[in-house]
Design a protein that fits this description.
The protein has nine helices and no strands. It is mostly helical. The protein has a domain at 64-203: Tetracycline Repressor, domain 2, CATH 1.10.357.
Length: 204
């Protein structure tokens, strides 16, 4: 975490510079020297406020997660609490559109995703993000399905989000948000129909 007292203007400046350097040379080659040059600051500022490269990388990851959380929360607040499928689509939107779909952000996400397997702090951030996504989905799904079914479908949607996002990030054409919506909603509709038909058959 950045030390208290760092000018607010510096944090987004350094986060943006970090993503630009990762985009250009990759995570492992993204040195403090390159990032400080990109941001137009001295290496001493990064070392003082972030304790070096790792602290800056962690703050960059936190900022990406904050943006994702804020986007989804804002969209959910704008929807009626009983518009469950619309709210699920808002959760999907937050992962595929706007800030998260920007090229530098997507490449940084991908770099952190692989790096987090070997770094406890980044792994913890990734787990927090995963739990938040599943929690958002289960809240909406539990109004339409049993708790056990909601759990299973939430994991299915989360897996589709991750898989489609990964394929889109590796694709030179980028992420196709419309195709992501179509695939995930097709899965959701089939799951809702399947569980509804099972209930009908048991009651008949």
């Amino acid at each position: 975490m950045p030390k208290v007292g760092m000018p607010d203007i510096r944090k987004p400046q350094l986060v943006k510079a970090t993503m630009a350097v990762i985009d250009r040379v990759g995570l492992h080659a993204a040195s403090i020297a390159l990032i400080s040059k990109e941001a137009g600051v001295s290496t001493g500022i990064i070392n003082h406020y972030f304790g070096g490269k790792h602290g800056l990388l962690e703050e960059t990851m936190r900022e990406i997660l904050r943006q994702l959380s804020n986007t989804i929360t804002t969209q959910l607040k704008a929807l009626p609490v009983d518009a469950h499928q619309q709210r699920i689509n808002a959760i999907i939107n937050g992962n595929f559109e706007g800030y998260q779909a920007e090229n530098q952000v997507a490449k940084t996400w991908l770099a952190f995703w692989s790096y987090s397997m070997h770094d406890e702090k980044l792994k913890r951030l990734q787990r927090v993000n995963e739990k938040r996504l599943l929690s958002h989905l289960k809240i909406e799904l539990k109004s339409m399905l049993s708790p056990e079914q909601a759990e299973l479908v939430a994991h299915g949607i989360a897996s589709l989000i991750d898989g489609i996002w990964l394929r889109g990030t590796l694709n030179p054409e980028g992420i196709d948000a419309n195709k992501a919506h179509a695939i995930i909603n097709d899965y959701l509709d089939k799951q809702l129909t399947f569980y509804a038909s099972n209930i009908t058959s048991r009651n008949s």
